[in-house]
Amino acid sequence: MKTMNTLAVLFVSPLISTSLFLSLPAFAQSVPPALKQNGAVTQKPVRTIGMEDYRKIVEHPGDALIIDVREPEEYAAGHVPGAINIPRGVINAQIWNHVGSAEKANLERPIVLQCQAGRRATLAAQTLGELGFTQTSAVIMNLDDWKQSGNPFVK
Question: Which of 2, 69, 154, 155 has the greatest CB tally within 10 Å of its CB?
Fold first, then answer.
C-alpha cells in the first residue's frame, strides 16, 4: 500500500506542477499592464445605482457597456434591452471579448452590471475593479420590480 501511495505522489505531483506552470501565461495575459506594474490591487468600494438611474442609462447608454451577469438560462428567460450576458463567474475572462485585449482596453469605459437583485452585480464590479476598470457600477434593484414598473424587458 505504501508503494502505491509513493507511486501516486511521484506521478501526480509533476502533473499538478506542470498544469500550474502552463496556466500562468494564460493568467498573465488576462491582467492589464497597470496591474502587472503595480503588483497589487487595492479593494475599492463599489459604486451602486438604483432603478431610476439604471433606466436612464438603458434609455441613453452612450458609451456604457451594460452587462447582465446572471446565468445564460436566466438571461434567455428575459433581459433588459441592450444588455449583453457575461455570467459573474466568468466575467474576468470574458470581459476582454467585449472591450479588447487587456493591453488595449479602455479601462475608463463606463460598465453597468446588473443581475436579479444586486449581489452578483456587486461581486462582478469588484472583479472588474481588480482588473483595473475604474468606471463600474452595480445596479441594486430587484429585476421583478423593474418589470412590474413597466420598464423595458425583452425575451
Answer: 69
